[in-house]
Design brief:
CATH architecture: 4-Layer Sandwich
Order of helices and strands: HEHEHEEEEEHEH
CATH class: Alpha Beta
Shape: globular
Number of strands: 8
CATH topology: Deoxyribonuclease I, Chain A
Structural class: alpha/beta
Helix content: 10-25%
Radius of gyration: 16 Å
């Protein structure tokens, strides 16, 4: 299978949800997944800790990967369909900065796509963005998909590093960078 075959066949289906606590919403998410049939699901603000076993948040037909926050809030969980060969490259929670998961997903036995799920708390300093860009810049030679909640003011000067990374990663065959507001409350948040 080639990258063009993947694209012409509809590609992978992605779903991102910022849910502010996974456990009480797991039934809703399971229903949403059965209706939308995504291949990869990234959930931010999972609010899970190490005390919650994987079995409590497992979804049939998916492997799961977690980056929990030590304290309450935050967290990222990524579900990938079981038939997709996946290995974890990085799972990290950097206190007060971000949670990040980076996966290598093999499609059709030959195509490797790097998928990153990221959550930045609204209080994350500019150094968080710099650290994330440094991590993700290691994967600019691969197909890379970043999903998450960056709580980032796209119009602020501090976001220029992420803009540069996005522009480096984007080619005509890839998605474009977000250009529209994602919330009615702030015209520039990603």
């Amino acid at each position: 299978m080639s990258l063009n075959d993947l694209r012409s066949g509809g590609g992978l289906k992605f779903l991102h949800l910022n849910i502010r606590s996974l456990l009480p919403k797991l039934d809703f998410i399971t229903t949403l997944i059965s209706e939308s049939a995504p291949d990869v699901i990234v959930i931010t603000e999972s609010w899970l800790t190490g005390k919650v076993p994987d079995s409590d948040v497992a979804i049939s037909g998916f492997n799961l990967f977690r980056a929990d926050r030590i304290s309450k809030g935050g967290g990222v969980i990524v579900y990938v369909k079981e038939h997709l060969a996946t290995h974890i490259i990085l799972s990290t929670s950097v206190p007060k900065l971000f949670e990040c998961i980076v996966l290598d997903v093999c499609v059709g036995g030959t195509i490797h796509i790097i998928i990153s799920g990221v959550y930045f708390p609204p209080t994350a300093p500019n150094s968080a963005l710099e650290k994330l860009c440094k991590i993700l810049s290691n994967y600019t030679t691969s197909e890379l998909t970043i999903l998450g909640d960056l709580n980032l003011n796209w119009l602020s000067p501090c976001s220029s590093k992420l803009k540069e990374l996005c522009l480096e990663l984007i080619c005509p065959s890839r998605s474009s960078i977000p250009r529209d507001q994602t919330t009615k409350m702030s015209p520039s948040l990603l």
